[in-house]
Each structure stands twice: as structure tokens, then as C-alpha cells.
Write a structure and sequence with these properties.
- Helices cover 35% and strands 30% of the residues.
- By secondary structure, it is an alpha+beta fold.
- It has a four-stranded antiparallel sheet with strand order 2-3-1-4.
- Helix 1 runs antiparallel to helix 3.
- The longest helix has 17 residues.
Length: 99
């Protein structure tokens, strides 16, 4: 079975509120077995446009990745991140290659 991934790019505008989001998302990520593969860090962007922060989370399956995003636990964290002025971002949930 292929793994599932969240790939997110984010611009953080309110670091203190974003820290609240980071603390709050731990409950959902633990419940659904999320593993950080990328969490910020230095990067090069030779093509296209990206945001200032990049995150990649790995889940045991695509279904787990989707279930985490749609869970009540993550909804609590998401409400913090999407408050006006906290951050702007893009997120995809994608099935990994199992070839």
C-alpha cells in the first residue's frame, strides 16, 4: 500500500499565533501517525514560486493522510492557522508512489 503525504508551503505572518497552531496540530498528527520528513529548513528554489516555509508529512497511507486533515482534532489546529493574518499557505494531500 502506498503511503500518503501532505506537502505544504506556508508564509507565516504572525509567528506567535503560528506557534499555537504547531502545538495544537500535534494531537491530530499523533493520532494519524504523521511523520515529519521536512519541517522548515534551508532550501533552494531554482524554478517556480514557493512560499517561505515548506513542510512534508508522511502517513502510512493516503487514506490516513486524508482522514487526518478532515478530523475534528486537526480542525481545531486549522482554526488557529487560518485566523486572519496568521499565515497563508498551500497544501496538497497526495498518494505516494508504490512502484
Amino acid at each position: 500500500m502506498a503511503k500518503g503525504y501532505w506537502i505544504a508551503t506556508v508564509d507565516v505572518h504572525d509567528l506567535e499565533a503560528y506557534k499555537e497552531y504547531v502545538q495544537a496540530n500535534g494531537e491530530a498528527f499523533a493520532k494519524f501517525g504523521a511523520k515529519f520528513l521536512v519541517r522548515g529548513g534551508e532550501f533552494e528554489n531554482p524554478e517556480g514560486k514557493l512560499r517561505s516555509r515548506n513542510v512534508v508529512l508522511e502517513f502510512d497511507s493516503y487514506e490516513q493522510a486524508k482522514a487526518c486533515y478532515h478530523s475534528p482534532e486537526y480542525a481545531k489546529a486549522l482554526a488557529i492557522r487560518t485566523r486572519s493574518g496568521v499565515s497563508q499557505g498551500d497544501l496538497i494531500i497526495i498518494e505516494g508512489y508504490d512502484g
